[in-house]
């Protein structure tokens, strides 16, 4: 009997990505809008491998992150998650950067956290089953090494983006490359995420998609909006009317928040086969050769010692980037051109 996509994803998640072992514990947080057919497949694979798995289901929350805690018994959930090895966050909104997440990730030193929200199985299959993990690990490790050896990073694209920032090697580099076998925070592959040295980003971000309030776009256009940055802070927004108006109105709500307009991260999408905007945040963030700039909140776990606390985090998507490590072009128009990177990238796809 041919295996279902749910089964392929579950085997990849439990055995290949999280590398769960006999006797370990997995918790899955979910709500009424979660993809339960997929969650049952995780549970079945866990049971077959002597891994104890519990699905914690609540009502669908009104928002993501801290807002997602509205329907969750917070203290009880914290205590439960303090006593497991792995956590798949499969709620429709996700608990990433919530108080629950911050507490558990700071205090449960063995935790491997995987954020999938309620993605449909077809999307999960494309992300978890489409590339050779060992090659993606090799590529992201090389990118991380070369990044940490650099002093300044420049990101450009044909829409008019041109922004430079300094490297701070104390900030965490997240790599969603298919290996989630050691404690840490993971999201669906494939990408690598950099946190610039605070206060150093300068230039212009040219974006086509804006995500602020949910997994669906708050603004999307064939023309770019421009976010002007100086000393790591948004100082002006113009360009495409809908996106620029949305962002300007969004930030009016956070005038009290000193970090709301601060650059948080730039994530480079590396998912083979993902080339076009899908209008779903977790997919668009991983478009191969695109940049996802984050503005606002950064956890202290990622930017020690204090992080960049904020009540908002906005992500904007910028297709087909050119990226320079110091003066060397690594990627051009969304494709690796530097030979040492290109050689690996060319053999990643299954």
Automatic annotation (TrEMBL):
Gene Ontology MF terms: metal ion binding
Pfam family for this entry, one: NicX
Keyword Lipid biosynthesis among record annotations: no
InterPro entries in the record: M29_Exopeptidase, NicX
The entry's keywords: Metal-binding
Protein name: Aminopeptidase
Organism listed in the record: Emergencia timonensis
